[in-house]
Structure formats: C-alpha cells, structure tokens
Amino acid sequence: MATPPAKLQEMPPKGGYQSIPFARVPAKKYFKGWQLIAAYAGFTTVGLSAYYLNCKENLRNEVEMRSARNVIYALLLAERDREYLKQIRRNRDEETELMKNVKGWEVGTWYGEPVFKTLPKDKFIDPTFQEFYVHTEYKEMAKRKNVKLLS
C-alpha cells in the first residue's frame, strides 16, 4: 500500500509580503483658515442683504394688496347688497306667481294677516337664510351656507 502524498503548507511568497502602510496621510488643504473666514463673511453679507431686499419688497407688496382690498371692499359690499335685494324681489315675484290662484293670499302676509303686527308696513324684515333660498335646490343652498365675502 502506498502512502498518500504529504500535504504542503501554504507559504508566503518569496521575498515576503508587502509592508502594511500605516503612516498618517494628511488631507490636502484647499483653503487656509483666513480664506474660509473671509468666504463665510462674504456669503453671510450677500445673504443678509438679499434677505433684507426681499423683506422690503414683500412689505411693499403687502401694503399695496391691503390698500387694494380696502378700496374694493366698499364696492364688493354694495354689489352684494344689490344682488341680495334683487334676489328678494325675485323671491317675492315667484311667490306672487306661485300663489296667484289661492283665494285671499297677499304676498308678504299670511292669508291677508300681517306676520309682524307691531311693525310698520314699510319696515324691511331680513329673511332667514332658508327663506332667502326657498326657491332654489337644497344643494345650491348648502353650497352657499359657508361662503363669506372676503375669506
């Protein structure tokens, strides 16, 4: 019986392994300390001046928009009131048309009896929200329930 060949142990290469570099390699310096401080001061100055000019422009725009709102507000209120009175007139005309065949019905009264007995006849009574939208669909009334003039 033949003996198996002996296993050879792995050995280092001839001349040995390369040396392991362990010396400190400093990072390359692109700027000096005073250059970094000067760059920081320059960027900060430019940034603050741009911020100041932007704030000044924003303030000017806010003042202009506030002035425009104040000017147009009276016109918007007048138009809203005008349309409100026109709608009340349309509601009254619709009531007249709707109740024309009902005997003894007078517009603005309850079968000829005034609703508000203690008030003079020429006193205007604001209708409630539901009375104002009485001749519209419920969806339209619900859409306008939370609308404000300048929101």
Structure characterization notes:
The protein has 151 residues and is an all-alpha fold. The protein is 51% helix and 3% strand. The protein has three helices and two strands, in the order αββαα. It has helices at 33-98, 129-132, 138-144; strands at residues 109-110, 113-114. The chain has a two-stranded antiparallel ribbon.
Produce a short descriptive summary.
The chain is an all-alpha fold and 151 residues long.
| Radius of gyration from the alpha-carbon trace, in angstroms | 44 Å
Distance between the termini: 105 Å
Shape: elongated
- Overall mean pLDDT stands at 89
- Compute the number of strand runs: 2
Structural class: mainly alpha
Side by side, the strands of the main sheet go 1-2
Please report the number of helical segments.
Answer: 3
Query: What are the secondary-structure elements, in order, as H or E?
Result: HEEHH
Strand content: under 5%
Helix content: 40-55%
Low-confidence blocks of residues: none
The largest pleated sheet is described as: 2 strands, antiparallel
Assembly status: single chain
Keywords:
two-stranded antiparallel sheet; mainly alpha; 3 helices; elongated; 51% helix; 151 residues
